[in-house]
Amino acid sequence: MESMLFCWIFLTLGWTLIDGSEMEQDFMWHLSKIPRVISERTFHLTSPTFEADAKMVLSRVCGIECQKELPAPSLSDLEDSLSYETVFENGTRTLTRVKVQDVVLEPPQNISRKGASVRRKRQVYGTDSRFSILDKKFLTNFPFNTAVKLSTGCSGILISPSHVLTAAHCVHDGKDYIKGSKKLRVGLLKMRNKGAGKKRRGSKRSRREADGGDQREGTKDNLERTKAGRRRKESHRGRRVAEGRPSFQWTRVKNTHIPKGWARGGKGDAALDYDYALLELKRAHKKKYMELGISPTIKKLPGGMIHFSGFDHDRADQLVYRFCSVSDESNDLLYQYCDAESGSTGSGVYLRLKEPDKKNWKRKIIAVYSGHQWVDVHGMQKDYNVAVRITPLKYAQICLWIHGDNANCTYG
User: Fold this and answer.
1) Using the 8-state DSSP alphabet, how is residue 107 labeled?
2) Residues 55-105: tens digit of each pLDDT
3) Over the stretch 136-145, which tens digit does the pLDDT of each residue have?
4) pLDDT for residue 385
5) Exposure string over 9-31, b if 16+ CB within 10 A, otherwise e
6) Which spans in 98-214 are helix H?
7) DSSP readout, 212-223?
8) Which residues form the signal peptide (predicted)?
9) Bridge pairing between strands 131-133 and 93-101
10) What is the dihedral of CA 177, 88, 152, 144, to 10 degrees?
11) How far is CA 409 from each of CA 47, 101, 156, 202, 329, rounded to the nearest angstrom?
């Protein structure tokens, strides 16, 4: 109990000191005009085979290691990468070509690093700094209630009453849709109600005893319950945790959107910069969701910190929260050392900043957690955990997916 209390105190202090302290300067969300991504034409494609393995295999990844050498992308390149595939519940598939307007083409950031990158399983650095969210009061309330679990084993985050943002590689390996994604489901958090019946029976017995029932029997029952409780506590200190473990309300996915920058098929390699996807749920939920925001630069992050929660495989069905500082960035990626294991990929990375002209703070998603990557820095291998930033163009694209047009996507 003491350790859990310490964790919650520390967690609360983490939100206070790191996620928006008066000791920091006033960090604010700044609304900016968003480029226009317009659907131009939609084509029907052959249905996918859904035979890919649930692993992301990238032969070439260009993140911070080769940003300096890259020329600025042309408008036609951007339009090709932001065009998107949609897979529907019945297995049919379309490709939508887009036009991009009102965009300012910026050169890649001047970061001189070269090398190849691969993935491996280890994603925890040194002392494990993750927190399992076990208390129902926290678990079922914002922001933790926005985290969801995918039937393919990844995580995601609610961004509207009907939409979930996740990593593209959770449903597609860059060439084909993975096994199990044809009948993709999303698990929304709910709490088990174990022992509800026992509580009702216990309350009836208490009323009988209060009305003059057999006091000796009541005393004996209470003694036995006390002994049983002590045995359970001594044999399994985590019993209360197990009883509070969440379960999921599973909902089918109506359709899935993936940018063509990721879904290259046999025509090229998937680009890590486009490792994000949007899932539309078959049934809308009533939970509070988290809005999208444009990813600020590292200098504009409170304490340089980011936050995200997901369902790491090494903590069965527990929601795991973490926060850490960002170590480096490129135009499209954040590089950090947030402790994370497989299963947390697809989580929404968020910040809490002040709203313009208001005193209240607001959390928004500014990236999607993608996973682990190795980078050759000046001839030495260095590994990071990587998140895909929500840039103005990606904001416009995801907003188009949510609303079906760009009428509500002018500012973000």
Assistant:
1) P
2) 665 544 554 555 555 667 789 999 999 999 999 999 999 999 999 998 876
3) 778 888 999 9
4) 86
5) eeeeebeeebbbeeeeeebbbee
6) 136-139, 196-210
7) T--HHHHHHHHH
8) 1-20
9) unpaired
10) 130
11) 30, 13, 22, 55, 25
Amino acid at 340: A
Compute, in degrees rounded to 10, the torsion defined by CA atoms 309, 311, 314, 320. Answer: 30
Q: Is the dihedral of CA 64, 26, 398, 349 positive or negative?
A: positive
What is the assigned CATH class of domain 32-102+129-191+244-403? Answer: mainly beta
Using DSSP's 3-state secondary structure scheme, residue 287 falls into coil
Q: Which are the contacts of 1, defined by CB distance < 8 A and separation ≥ 6?
A: none
| pLDDT score, position 188 | 93
What contacts 238, CB < 8 A, 6 or more positions away?
none
Q: What span, in angstroms and rounded, lies between the C-alpha atoms of 233 and 38?
A: 60
Count of helices and strands (H, E) across the chain? 7, 17
Q: Where are the domains of the chain?
A: 32-102+129-191+244-403
Q: Are 95 and 45 in contact (CB under 8 A)?
A: yes
Instruction: Check if the beta carbon of residue 176 is closer than 8 Å to that of residue 78.
Output: no
237: burial class by Cβ within 10 Å (0-12, 13-18, 19+)? exposed
d(CA 251, CA 256): 14
Q: Which residues on adjacent β-strands are paired with residue 246? A: 191
Cα 260 from Cα 209, distance rounded (Å):
69
CA distance 311 to 147: 8
pTM of the model: 0.79
Chain centroid to CA 351: 13
Return the HEC string of 295-330: CCCHHHCHHHEEEEEECCCCCCCCEEEEEEEEEEEC
At 40, the amino acid letter reads E
Residue 218 has pLDDT above 70, yes or no: no
Q: Are 90 and 45 in contact (CB under 8 A)?
A: no
Tokens linked to 206? 């208490």
Task: Show Cβ contacts of residue 340 under 8 Å, excluding neighbours closer than 6 positions.
Answer: 123, 124, 130, 310, 312, 322, 347, 369, 371, 385
**Residue 317 phi, psi (nearest 5):** 60, 15
Place of tokens 């985290």: 147
